[in-house]
Amino acid sequence: MKEITFNDFYQLYQTESLSVLDVREVEEFEVLHLEAARNFPLSQLADTYDQLDKSQSYYVICKSGKRSARACQFLSEQGYDVINVQGGMDALE
Q: Can you give the residue ranges of the Rhodanese domain (predicted)?
């Protein structure tokens, strides 16, 4: 699985247009999220992932990096190009 540290991701995020998937639950996403992020809760991902474009690369983020790692494993098995953001939103604090 491809991974990137939060700091490296955030540097890219500030200078490039990235496709970011936030796999936290809706309530968590509403409290705090990155401006460009799209919310695809892990609990619903099996039903919603087909809305994603296989020609894009996605940076996948959650609170700490555990759910995003599971999401990345699932999405990569479906043929998507995904990069797990280590440390997740916790790294912002």
A: 14-93
Separation between Cα atoms, residue 76 and residue 62, nearest integer Å: 17
Domains and CATH numbers, the chain: 2-92 (3.40.250.10)
Query: Does the predicted TM-score (pTM) go above 0.90?
Result: yes
pLDDT digits (tens, 9 = 90+) for 36-81: 999 999 999 999 999 999 999 999 999 999 999 999 999 999 999 9
